[in-house]
Amino acid sequence: MMPDAESECVSIGIVSPLKDYRLCWFLNNCLDIDLQKVNDLDITDPQKRKQLLFTRFKYEEPVTRSEFYVLQNKINAAYLLPEIKQADFILLIKGSYYQQHQKEIINKIKTVQEIQITVPFDMATLKSKKNILLYDDEKRK
Q1: Which has the closest alpha carbon to 14: 101, 108, 137?
Q2: 56-89 burial by CB neighbour count: b if 16+ within 10 A, else e?
Q3: Is residue 10 within 8 Å of residue 31, measured between CB atoms?
Q4: Is the pTM of this model over 0.70?
C-alpha cells in the first residue's frame, strides 16, 4: 500500500444487525457497485494467542480506479478496529475520486433502513490501523 493511500481513503463505520452478505447486497444496490467476497482478513491477537478471521468483500471500480472494501469489525468480543467499537462493519473506498463524494455516499447508505448509523472516521488517527492496512492484500498474492 502506498504511504499516502490511507489519506486517499474514504472510511465509514456502519452499524447494522445484518449479516455481512446481506449488508453487501444492500450496499451493492444503493451504491450501484458489485461487492464480492474475497479471502478473510487473518489477524493474530497476540494477547489471547488467537487467530481471528474477519470477513471481507471487495469491488474494483474500473472507471475511477477506486477500490471498495467492506470489512467485518466484530467477532464475538474481538474488534478489527477497537477505536470504533460501535461499528459492526467498515466501508473503505480507496482512491481520491470518492473523497469529494463522501457525503453523497453516506446519504445513499442512510437510505437503507437496515443500516442504523454511519460513522465517518479518519484512518490516520487510529492506533490499530495496522490491522486495517492489510485490507487490500489481494494484490500481494
Answers
A1: 108
A2: bbbbebeeeebbbbbbbbeeeeebbbeebeebbb
A3: no
A4: yes
Report the DSSP beta bridge partners of residue 58: 36, 69
**Helix or strand run (H / E) with residue 119:** strand 117-120
Single-letter amino acid, residue 51: Q
Query: pLDDT tens digits for 4-28?
Result: 444 578 999 999 999 999 999 999 9
Contact 123, 9 (CB under 8 A): yes
Instruction: Supply the DSSP symbol for 25.
Output: H
Report strand pairing: 66-72 vs 89-94.
Answer: antiparallel
